[in-house]
Design brief:
By secondary structure, the chain is α+β, with helices and mostly antiparallel strands. It has helices at residues 2-8, 40-67, 88-93, 129-133, 137-141, 168-171, 197-203, 234-240, 298-323, 335-340; strands at 70-74, 100-106, 115-122, 157-158, 161-162, 177-182, 185-187, 248-255, 264-270, 281-287. A four-stranded antiparallel beta sheet has the order 1-10-3-8. A four-stranded antiparallel beta sheet has the order 2-9-6-7, with no helix packed on it. A two-stranded antiparallel ribbon has the order 4-5. It has two domains: 37-68 and 294-326; 70-288, no CATH class. The longest helix is centred in the first third of the chain and has 28 residues, at 40-67.
């Protein structure tokens, strides 16, 4: 009997492990929950509410975008002398050619300050994997990581030592310059606070200074003042925030005076940046801003489209409910009920 009792009562070490969870309202899914029932009336009201909210927002967005005054000037081909029209690359690569170009722009409407200055590049793939990786964020942040250049190839070293900032992104820094005047009066261009505050505080160190930058055999773009820390080089910070699309705009500066309608602005351009080797385009953009930013009709059109579609669906559901109403909870339309009554199973 003792042996039998011992066999029928195994010790705890021989008990089978169970994966069954302990009982709780959470494991048994017995917690209180909200389970709304979408009745035809509630669905119609939801669609109507969305339409009533979205359509005014879309109209306001379109109106705000329409009030933005924008001038886009495509200058890369116009700034090439006629004798270099068939060989633009030779012109831009030669150190002996005069890169100064004077263009005149007419203001179509009054542009209230601040007037934002952008440069736009087309067919420039800043999102290319090897290009994006060719940088050292640690080196940009702190002087103690000056020699951390493993990801910066091929722009890591020169004969004089390590390059700061290293990598292809910094090396290809945009270097066209713009000067503006109206009636022979120079317009100041402010470059203060043209970058993100988070970049200035967290990504670029105040103890990091340019070193051996653009001193190799092949010059990629603009040079940097070696006496100014990277945290104050705002043109560099704007450029280093790489664009996701091959056509992009980057902020160059601001004109902080009003520009009157029909005024003629003289723009003196230093056409230095090489976009001709990859058939890219360069554009100068002057633009005001509204509460939604620059000129952009996409947001307004999207809101109007969604709002109009919701109102259309609300009307369609209302007509369907009035023409062919269905009692709430009616299960006669279910496939197994139709099958039991001789219908087809879907």
């Amino acid at each position: 009997m003792e042996a039998k009792d011992g066999a029928s009562n195994p010790t705890s070490s021989t008990k089978k492990k169970s994966r069954k969870p302990k009982y709780s309202k959470f494991t048994q899914q017995e917690l209180p929950a909200c389970k709304p029932i979408l009745t035809p009336a509630s669905v119609i009201l939801i669609f109507v509410a969305i339409g009533i909210v979205f359509i005014p927002i879309g109209l306001a967005s379109l109106f705000a975008s329409e009030r933005v005054v924008e001038i886009v000037h495509h200058y890369d081909k116009d700034c090439i002398p006629l004798k270099y029209a068939d060989n633009m690359l030779a012109y831009i690569q030669s150190s002996k050619t005069n890169k100064t170009c004077v263009r005149k722009l007419t203001i179509p409407k009054q542009m209230k300050s601040p007037v934002y200055i952008y440069y736009q590049l087309d067919h420039f793939y800043q999102n290319h994997r090897r290009y994006v990786k060719s940088r050292s964020d640690k080196q940009l942040r702190s002087k103690s990581y000056e020699n951390t250049t493993d990801d910066c190839a091929p722009e890591r070293y020169t004969a004089k030592g390590v390059i700061v900032p290293c990598g292809l992104v910094a090396w290809s820094l945009f270097n066209d310059t713009y000067k503006f005047s109206v009636n022979n009066k120079q317009l100041g261009v402010s470059k203060k606070d043209i970058t993100w505050k988070s970049d200035q505080k967290n990504k670029f160190g105040s103890d990091v200074y340019p070193k051996n930058f653009q001193s190799g055999g092949l010059i990629g773009g603009a040079k940097l003042n070696s006496s100014i820390p990277l945290s104050e080089q705002e043109d560099l910070m704007v450029w280093m925030r790489t664009a996701a699309l091959p056509t992009f705009r980057k902020l160059y500066g601001r004109i902080e005076v009003d520009l009157e309608a029909d005024a003629v602005i003289t723009v003196t351009i230093e056409n230095n940046y090489n976009t001709y080797s990859f058939r890219g385009n360069k554009k100068l953009v002057l633009s005001t801003a509204s509460w939604i930013g620059g000129k952009n009709y996409l947001l307004g059109v999207a809101y109007l489209t969604v709002g109009g579609l919701c109102l259309f669906l609300a009307l369609a559901f209302l007509l369907l409910y009035l023409i062919k109403p269905r009692p709430l909870g009616d299960i006669s339309y279910l496939s197994w009920n139709r099958s039991a009554s001789g219908g087809h199973i879907y």
